[in-house]
Structure prediction request, 287 residues.
Amino acid sequence: MILVAGVTGNTGSVVAKTLLAKGEKVLALVRSEEKGAPWRERGAEVVVGALDDVETLTAALKRVDAAYLLTPPNYAVQENYLANRIAFNDELAAAVKASGVKRVVYLSSVAAHLPSGTGPILSVGDGERKLRATGTELIALRAAYFAENWGMGAEAAAKDGVLPTFMTPDAKVTMVSVVDIGRTAAELLVEGGPEVVELAGAGEYDAADAARAFGAALGREVEPSYAPLEAVEPTFRDLGLAGFGPLYREMFETMNAGQLDFEFPNRIRRGEIGLEQAVANMLASST
Prediction:
């Protein structure tokens, strides 16, 4: 049996669906019985609990051979965000160590090996180190920038024909779909793999490419709207996410400088879904 966390989110849902389609037994970790009901209907077993509930997670991990784990964002944190996620990683690692689970696939990120300059990515770098220290067979799945992150600009694209971005016009990065991430994670959970798997998208894209993808899906012209890095913190503050602002400014600065790189560029895997298809899928699922 395989435990899957985050089944109500983007990647975890794909992991669980892929495993069930392969005939694997899935134990879905959810926060409530209500959220678990659809997964029971799909044939999964369900356990109610939180990832930072060491007792519940330990008991669940003792029942399985492998687990898909992640350090999810905490949108309620208004300050000391990294400290909050580092404390979360301590709880996650404690449960993994106490359970003795054989294999963990952990959702990490491109540039997780870098010691500074990556903003929120520092939290998953910390998670990698702590989970590896438990002695489990850890596979860190370092995914590229999520193509679905552009969803934050979907309303503006549809309504006003503009796609807001903090990327500069000359910045081009690989972007990967959550579908490719979930499928890859499911494969690694069943078959195993190296300690680090770096997953790129089907290609490299800039903000203009993303705007064209939205235009194709919406059937209208969409142009990128470039905002300066000075606007990152006020924007996140207006969204009620003040704790994220400084970290995301740092990440975008590194991205725009072309330094958000993989550690092992000669052995990266590539997903199959391009940015245009990822955007089309995202918009179709939201309607």
Summary: The two ends are 34 Å apart (CA to CA). The chain has one domain: 2-285.
